[in-house]
Specification:
Blueprint lengths: L1 H24 L3 H4 L10
């Protein structure tokens, strides 16, 4: 039972860290798909 609880806690910690990392490197669409020849209106 102790091993299962440790595995659940580890899975939660990994998910939280993954969410923080992915949200910090994500770019918005207007930044990701804009080049010098493209104008996007807000």
């Amino acid at each position: 039972m102790k091993t299962f609880i440790v595995a659940c806690v580890a899975a939660i910690i990994i998910a939280v860290i993954g969410g923080v990392v992915l949200s910090s490197i994500q770019e918005s669409a207007d930044k990701a798909f804009t080049t010098t020849a493209v104008r996007l209106s807000a």
